[in-house]
Design a protein that fits this description.
There is one protein chain. The chain is mainly α. α1 (4-23) runs antiparallel to α2. It contains 2 helices and no strands. It has helices at 4-23, 30-50.
C-alpha cells in the first residue's frame, strides 16, 4: 500500500522548494522553515517505519 503521508509531505516540500527558488527567498522565511520541519517529519516517519514491531 502506498504511504500517503510520506507522499503528501514530499509533494508539499517540492512545491515549497520550487517557490523558494523562484522567488529567491532567504533561509529565515516561513516557507524555508517549513521545508526544514518537513525534512524532520520525513526523517521521523522513516525511522518509525524501519523500526521492527
Amino acid at each position: 500500500m502506498a504511504d500517503l503521508y510520506r507522499k503528501n509531505l514530499e509533494s508539499e516540500r517540492r512545491q515549497l522548494w520550487a517557490t523558494c527558488r523562484l522567488k529567491g527567498l532567504a533561509k529565515d522565511t516561513p516557507q524555508r522553515l517549513r521545508i526544514v520541519e518537513i525534512d524532520r517529519l520525513l526523517a521521523e516517519h522513516k525511522a518509525k517505519q524501519s523500526k521492527p514491531d
